[in-house]
Amino acid sequence: MEKAIVIYKSRYGFTKKYAHWIARELGAELMEARKIKASDIQNYDVIIYGGGLYAGGVNGFSLITKSFRSIADKSLYLFTVGAADVSDEKNINSIRSSLSKVLTPEMESKINIFHFRGGIDYPRLSFMHRIMMGMMVKMIRKKPEPELSEEEKIMLETYGQVVDFTDISAIGDMIDHIKTRT
Ligand SMILES: Cc1cc2nc3c(=O)[nH]c(=O)nc-3n(C[C@H](O)[C@H](O)[C@H](O)COP(=O)(O)O)c2cc1C
Predict the structure, then answer these.
(1) At 182, is the pLDDT very low, low, confident or very high (cuts 50, 70, 90)?
(2) What is the widest separation between alpha-carbon atoms in the chain?
(3) Which residues lie closer than 8 Å to 94 by C-beta, 6 or more apart?
(4) Which three-class secondary structure state does DSSP give residue 165?
(5) Where in the chain is the domain with CATH 3.40.50.360?
(6) Coil, strand, or helix at residue 18?
(7) If we measure between CA atoms, which residue out of 115, 121, 46 comes closest to residue 86?
(8) Is the CB of 102 under 6 A from ligand 1?
(9) Ligand 1 centre and the CA of 1: distance in Å?
(10) pLDDT tens sequence across 45-87
């Protein structure tokens, strides 16, 4: 029987939600990234990592990239969770381009990557995150209205609020991929 684990790092709970759904669907173990030792990851055949996107980077993903040599022969999955709309090709391309800066070509060829939409919880943001989002919104507000992308418009509309785009049906393709891989 193959052993699968879902490892996640979630700052405000959006990635955690997807990690729970995926683990439940697969009957996999579920573990927070901070609770697992890099050496223990090797005990699994299917390793799924999920992390929130922060300025393009995947929260805590170095746990996997640093251990890559010892787990390269496993079935590897990464899911990212961000506020941006992942049905928009432009957003996917931007996530992929940030990822390609931290993944070697071998990692890129071996890790199956999926993107899910999380949300943003302004009232709960840390001081630093609040400052960063405030700066971003300030920059967007300087742009002339016709130049705003859909994503930027949504950011302005939702600024300061709680928005949750998490959707259990989004995990379907990933689950199918894991269940039907050869
Ligand atoms: C400082 C900051 C930077 C962020 N950068 C991105 C980003 O580059 N791309 C994106 O899609 N979402 C970005 N987000 C939104 C988070 O990825 C989103 O809130 C996600 O759902 C967080 O998941 P978590 O609560 O599991 O950590 C950012 C949020 C903050 C506070």
Answers:
(1) low
(2) 58
(3) 56, 84
(4) coil
(5) 4-118+165-180
(6) helix
(7) 115
(8) no
(9) 36
(10) 999 999 999 988 999 999 999 999 999 999 999 999 999 999 9
CA of 73 to the centre of ligand 1 (A): 30
Q: Is the CB of 81 under 6 A from ligand 1?
A: yes
Atom of ligand 1 nearest to the CA of 8: 26
The answer to whether the CB of 7 is under 6 A from ligand 1 is no
| Residue nearest atom 21 of ligand 1, based on CA coordinates | 118
Question: pLDDT tens, 34-50?
Answer: 999 989 999 999 999 99
Q: For residue 12, give the ligand 1 atom closest to its CA.
A: 25
Q: What is the DSSP string of 66-125?
A: HHHHHHTTSEEEEEEEESS-TTSHHHHHHHHHHHTTTS-HHHHHHEEEEEEE-EEEGGG-
Could you tell me the distance, in angstroms and rounded to a whole number, from the CA of residue 119 to the centre of ligand 1? 8
Q: Which atom of ligand 1 is nearest to the CA of 125?
A: 31
Distance CA 174, CA 72 (A): 19
For domain 4-118+165-180, give the fold.
Rossmann fold (3.40.50)
